[in-house]
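Can anyone check this?
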Amino acid sequence: MTGTKLKVTVLYDLWEETAAEPEEEAPPPRRRKGQKKRKKKPVKHDREEIFEALEKLGHEPSYHVLDGRTQSLLALAKCGADLIFNLTESYAGDDTKEMHVAAFLDILEIPYTGAGPHAVILAQDKSIAKKMFAFHGIKSPFFATSWRGSIDHAHDIAFPLIVKPTSEDGSIGIDAAAVVTSIKELMERVSYIQTEFDSPALIEEYIEGREIYASILGSYENARALPLVELDLSKLPKGVPRIASQDVKFEKDTDAYKLTKSAIAEDLDEETETRLTEIAIKAYRAVKLRDYGRIDMRLSSKGEVYVIEANPNPWLSSGQEFAMAARKSGLSYTQMIGEIVDHAMARYA
């Protein structure tokens, strides 16, 4: 890792809606006599963990928040950073503007980590990404896209299907009702997606199988996959689709969240693991990701590998899949952040 001390600005987005006052918490349960009070360990944001890692690496970190006002953009232009650690996923709450933040940094000629604007749009629009995968010979579920009565693209697809917005991430718009098995359910779900998210609906063949994540460090020529992680969906109740829905990923009070967990995929044979890794790197390159990213795949019971989507900005919290894979590879959290910084700075050398 480079020994050069850098001024690194950790850039993240926060707007009025998410900056609102938190709801009042319920009172804590009564303690029994003699029972020791347990201290709750505060949960850190990924930006805080990254900030601390940058300090340990000998850099000089600072924060900058994009709050949706022009002043925050103008201040970013004057921040004086050697490198921006870009954690933005939207601008003013609009995640379709994520690419514009990267483009703004390009215009300012300030080095930054992660995907450029072209890669963000390729990965964010799932229909475009799937066309890129097909061009490069990467298997992905057959699909169609529908927007207000018109069909933009369509393979011959068969039930069951999963219906989701074309350009949302974080499993937004994906719940148990996203998997449909009839024309009636399909039409209702397409209408819901178009109305609720003002987005074309991606109608995709549902692939039953294991949910495998490949975290990747590096850029085109030096991209390397970290150990594979599996989101185990096998304990979900009978009749509940085995999908990474929003409640599985984020709703901590739900049974779906409590019954699922991510862990290193330990029981894959060498040939299957190699195939998954090679396909993930190929997909990573196809949509021009760089520095770090994650490829989500399905492994069917027949051993077929389907790429579901590419993530240019996977969550870097120490408890999430990317850091889990890094630890398994022998990298500490601080070393992982250091590698991302080094890959970004090497690009601008």
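Reply from J.R.: I decoded it. The longest helix spans residues 270-286.
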